[in-house]
Structures are given as C-alpha cells and as structure tokens.
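Inputs:
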Amino acid sequence: MMNKYIELIEKPQLAAKTDEIAVGDTVDVHCKIKEGDKERVQVFSGTVLCFNGRGLTRTFTVRRIVMNEGVERIFPTNSPNVVKVVKKRAGKTRRAKLFYLRDRVGKGTRLAEVAKAGKKGDAKSAD
Amino acid sequence: MPPTLLGRKVGMTRIYDGDVMVPVTLVKAGPCVVTQLKVADGKDGYNAVQLGFEDIRAKVTTQAEIGHAAKAGTAPKRAFREVRFEGSADKTVGETLNVGVFEGVSHVDVIGTSKGKGFQGVMKRHHFGGQPASHGCERKHRSPGSIASHATWRGQCGKPKKGLRMAGRMGGDRVTSIGHKLVGIDAENGLLVLKGALPGANGSLVLVTRSRKAS
C-alpha cells in the first residue's frame, strides 16, 4: 500500500547498466577499487551465472576460472562502484541459473554462442 | 520544544551515499496539529505540547474527542502524544507541523511498539545460554535451569524473587531506538529517511524526535 514511497526513493537510483546483459553472457565488469587514497578501475571478466533480487537490490553473479580455481563475484547491479558492464559474447542457455557450470571443468564450461542474426529476439542481444 | 512529529513507518530500502550503501527506513511523518499546550505555572504543573496525528471520522470517535480537537480548530485525531520540554513552548494551539521542523537536525530518536513475538522461551527472550546439547543432557536443551534455592536472597519465603527472568510474552513493548542519522527529508511527500531499522511493523505508529544524545 505504502510502497509507492519506497519506489519514489529507489527509482532515481536505478541504473540501466545491465539491461543488455543476460544469463550465460560473457562480460567484462568494470569495477571501482579503492586502495588507500587511490582509486582505479578493475576489470573482472567471466560468465554471468544468475541474477538475484529486483529493483535496487538486484545483483548478478559472474564466474571465471583463475589459475584452475573457480572464482565467483557478486555485483550489485545498481552500485556506483560498478562503472560499466560490457558484453563480449552472448551464450545460449535454457535456464535462468547456470549453477551446473560449477561442476564442469575445461571445455565443458563453454556455452554455445547465440547466432548473431538469428531469430528476432537474438538480433537485439547481439553486439 | 525539540523537533518532534508523529508518523508511520513505511518500510526499509537502501540509498547509495557516494560509493557506500546505507540501509534506511522511510517514515511518513506529520502533518501534526498542536491540540493543547500544558504549562508549568498553571494547573498542569509541567510544560508540554500535545500533538494530534491523522484525521479520524467523527462517527467513530466520541463527542469529547471532537470537542477537544475543535478547540484547536481541527478534525478529530487518531493519535495524540505529549512532548515535554524545558522553557517556553514557541508553539500555538492549532499550529500544523510537518517534516520541515527537522531541518538542520542530524540525528533522531524513534519511539515505537515492537513486533509481538508471542510466548517465547528464555533463550530468545532473555538471551540465556540454555543447556548442553550432549553430555547426558536430556529433553531440556533450551530450558532455563535452576531458579535459585530458598537459602539465598533470590529465593526467600519459598518464592522466587519478583522480576526473575522466565519464559513469557515477548515483544509488543514500547521501544526507543536512539541515534538514527537523518539521511534525508522529502518535504513534498512528508517523508523522513532514517538510517537503520526502526521498531515495529511497517505501517505502525512511531514518534520521531531530535536525538538527545547525538545532536
């Protein structure tokens, strides 16, 4: 009933940074890092496993393999620390959560690429 | 009179203050009408401002309440609270207060009624440690244990001392939560944005006042 006030506060803070991103995509997440007084942008690239939450609390999980060890980072979609998210490759998936990728190694972790000029929905998501 | 308003808790959300996420609670505060002034050198014996909040239909209230509100030239109100203070009132009967009174205030205290928890054991209600999980402990892992012998001052006259902490009704109490940072004011919608969680359920009545400690 009163949620219109919460919406009023949240709406100006919503960012469109991940609107073009879908589960299964390979992305570069440009993330602000503070080291003492210095601030720099670090890039974390990997596969988007899932989205969680909605509105201002929405987050997404990115997984990559670093030195044979799986590393996952969860980014708040609307955080000012996430500078931008660049889509590198559109992965073809049939489910919303790709947790099964955690059990796979090597070539098994690859996802088929969505055809760039395929069906009408695909044209939008391709780079 | 310190800046004070009655309001309703709207709910929680978050705000990014620069790079930092701040958990906040929204309060729809005011407008409140000054319905009565109490004066120390009169029959009252103390200084206070009585605030009325939220109009109520004349049908569901009493003639006495209607008359009381009419003295302040306003409709009958659902909730009244007195705000005591030292010194002069600087308010007049019939004056309307809104969130603008919190202009320049850095921290506030919030008084509300906590959520009722029902009948709870001592571990939840009083943070007792309970009994061991094993080492021969049987069917009494969450029990309070012994409540003292009759030989001590705690157990005189064959009775436990009054106020001994036991299981019972929990929650639904008046709770004062102090030192909430006032993150923002939305004058247009009468909203206060306060850092942290407030007592009570969403939609419950709260009294917001300038913090006695921080500001």
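Residues 121-127 of chain A have pLDDT under 50 and may be disordered. Flag for discussion at group meeting.
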